[in-house]
Specification:
This protein is α/β, with parallel strands linked by helices. The protein has a single domain (6-198, 211-230), classed as 3-Layer(aba) Sandwich (Rossmann fold), CATH 3.40.50. The protein is 34% helix and 25% strand. The structure holds adenosine-5'-triphosphate. It comes from Lacrimispora algidixylanolytica.
Length: 235
């Protein structure tokens, strides 16, 4: 195991003339829960896709546990994309079977327990689930892998506020604690209590990477307050 889980050096990704990730230097350790925060279009999804190997850097270097994104890194990454990709006809039990076939590190018992505590039945079909329930089901599957790196792109956007805390607790008490969770979100105040670190992205650049404790101690404010200050329109 490498000391750092993620290292980026001069990492850059352009789509034509648009630079979405702009010379990022970053190190992330093991066993951390990190919020990837930034306004719309700041590069969060692009960064996550670079880590997954779905996009390739235009320049610079990116390593995950010492490997460039590829076969080795994909085996240790559990990725929740920003949209659902399962077929509508599938039942919860089919999803668990599908994950068990695909991923050697998938813990089916854990997934079924999580479904139960989230109120999702084994015979429930995706087609009949609400948007929020689909998100819960997908998140439970993703977190039931014993991965080194969990990449969650907007994991609870469609879930009602009352259920968010319960989901965060269910999910975060069940995953592999030596693993790192990197999640992008706009729901900062709902999530910040579970975060160890935050990465603020703006125009493809890291404008702040710090621990939540440091932010609270040094700034005397919550992550949500700091975010609103940094990203106030018109600044
Ligand atoms: N396929 C693409 N082709 C061209 N430009 C793109 C493409 N995908 C993203 N971009 C641009 O790259 C920038 C970063 O986009 P990205 O989706 O990574 O941002 P984001 O922070 O995830 O945004 P949001 O919070 O709205 O989801 C944006 O300016 C976006 O318009």
């Amino acid at each position: 195991m490498n000391q750092e889980l993620i290292t980026a050096r001069g990492l850059t990704k352009s789509y034509g003339t648009k630079t979405a990730i702009d010379h990022i230097d970053l190190s992330v350790g093991h066993g951390r829960i990190i919020g990837l925060l930034g306004p719309n279009g700041s590069g969060k999804t692009t960064f996550i896709k670079l880590l997954c190997g779905l996009l390739h850097p235009t320049s610079g270097e990116l390593k995950i546990d010492g490997h460039s994104p590829g076969v080795e890194s994909k085996a240790i990454i559990s990725y929740l994309p920003d949209r659902m990709y399962f077929a509508d006809w599938m039942r919860t039990s089919d999803l668990a079977a599908f994950f068990a076939d695909f991923y050697a590190d998938f813990d089916r018992t854990k997934a079924l327990e999580m479904f139960k505590s989230l109120g999702i039945g084994q015979n429930d079909r995706i087609k009949t689930m609400s948007k929020g329930t689909k998100e819960k089901a997908q998140l439970a599957l993703i977190m039931s892998r014993k991965a080194q790196l969990y990449l969650l792109d907007e994991p609870i956007g469609g879930v009602d506020p009352a259920a968010r805390d319960f989901i965060l607790n269910t999910i975060l008490t069940n995953y592999n604690e030596n693993g790192t969770v990197l999640l992008s979100t706009h729901l900062i105040s709902d999530i910040e209590r579970v975060l160890d670190e935050v990465i603020f992205l703006q125009n493809g650049k890291v404008v702040r990477h710090d621990t939540v404790d440091n932010i609270r101690e040094q700034e005397g404010k919550s992550v949500d307050q700091l975010f609103r200050e940094i990203f106030t329109y018109g600044h």
